[in-house]
Amino acid sequence: MKHRLAVLAVFTLFSDTATLSQTPSIRRLDGSRITVAEAEAFARKTLADAHVTGAQIAVVDRGRLVWSSAFGLRRREPPLPMTTQTPTWLGSITKSVFSVYVMQLVERGELALDVPLASQLTKPLDAYEAWRESGSELVKDPRWPLVTPRMLLTHSSGLANLAMFEPDKKLHLHQQPGTSYRYSGDGLNLIQLFIEQKKGKTLDLLMDDAFFTPLGMKRSGIIYKKEFGDEVADRFGAEEQFLAKTRRFPAHAAGSMTSTADDLATFVSALFAGKLLKPATQKMMLQPSLKIRSVHQFSDRFDEPENSEVGRVGLAYGLGWGLLTKTPFGPAFFKEGHGDGAQTYMICFERRQACMIVLTNSDNGEFIFRALFEKILGDTVTPWEWEGYTPAAILESRKNQ
After folding, report:
1. Alpha-carbon separation of residue 240 from 43, 123, 209, 227, 263 (angstroms)
2. For residue range 62-80, what is the model confidence (pLDDT) as tens digits?
3. Where are the beta strands (DSSP E) in 76-147?
């Protein structure tokens, strides 16, 4: 009991809020409203009850940031508050931000979505030093020359998530390329390889030039930046124990980005405003390229019935984004991030240009997503079971780690 009261005290003491709209309330997806005070109180209690060390929340409506807040701690010793300006590790949300950059290159004719990646590289994959070991078996597979950037962006290449999780630590194709969904972080890293060789620059510099500098995203980087100093959020485990400082480098398209909820709100606002992609390119990116029928995101079962949560929302994948194609609120695009001591989630609804972004520096962050998104945004459509964001799924995942 004393521990719980102490945590509640921390969340009461350390909160940083910005109400950016002229009205003291947030409009939910169904048109109802929740006051900022109610949203603050609900978030603070929910985060404290779940022992989430620190968190940032941002809400966008009609393409502009209307509310953001930060809760808890970015560091425990000494106790330092999480603020709306604290750079926080995004995990796999990096993939979707990177995908927008990829689409800029597609728009300019610098990358072909449907030309096999192997033929766009200047030499065989295992001839690149960073891929010599992990790519040595993939280049022998007769299916590898069929894999295109489109397949890699839609997670349908047949690659598993990361080579480091394979028994032999090497890349393998587990299915015929282009046939079904199988999440792969290495797929995005392979596109990064092509881009860096073509542009002659590392991804961190390229994305600074493309997004972060022109949009004023000063707390964002694909790698840790010295100007962040010690303000970056540390990461904490299920018992709120310290896990690591956040100093992500080198750049990895699959998940090295550090940012804030406010900076991500700036990013999606620019996307809605047509500042990043031409309308036709953006439409292509957010069109369903692949229908998803898997039971869970990382499941090998592909027999989910139409009346399941996956079928009801029309779960699909576009180019770098998960998609909900059948909701009462219109189509939506989303991305989640998982990492040691960093659990993150964001979703945007195109019709309203409405988004909610939650970043946490805690392994317990997954427990609070559903409650926060339903209460504050009125998001009743995210397929939480497929995402693995139910208590039973989270605890089962921890057992298997």
Report:
1. 18, 46, 37, 27, 26
2. 999 999 999 999 999 999 9
3. 80-81, 88-89
- What sign does the dihedral 129-134-136-141 (CA atoms) show? negative
* Pair 252, 354 in one domain: yes
The whole-angstrom separation of Cα 80 and Cα 211 is 29
Same domain for 244 and 130, yes or no, is: no
Model pTM score: 0.92
Cα torsion through 84, 89, 93, 95, rounded to 10: 140
Give the residue numbers spanning the domain of 343.
Answer: 14-90+202-400
Residue 200 burial by Cβ neighbours in a 10 Å radius (0-12, 13-18, 19+): exposed
Which strand (E) or helix (H) includes residue 271? Answer: helix 261-272
Model confidence over 204-231: pLDDT tens digits? 999 999 999 999 999 999 999 989 988 9
- DSSP secondary structure code for residue 73 in this structure: E
Assess whether 356 and 221 both reside in one domain: yes
Question: In sequence order, what DSSP letters do the residues of 113-133 get, joined into one string?
Answer: TTS-HHHHSSS-GGGSGGGTT
Domain end point (choices 166, 199, 232): 199
Count of domains forming the chain: 2
**pLDDT tens per residue, range 157-184:** 999 998 898 999 999 999 999 999 999 9
The verdict on 241 and 264 lying in the same domain is yes
DSSP 365: G
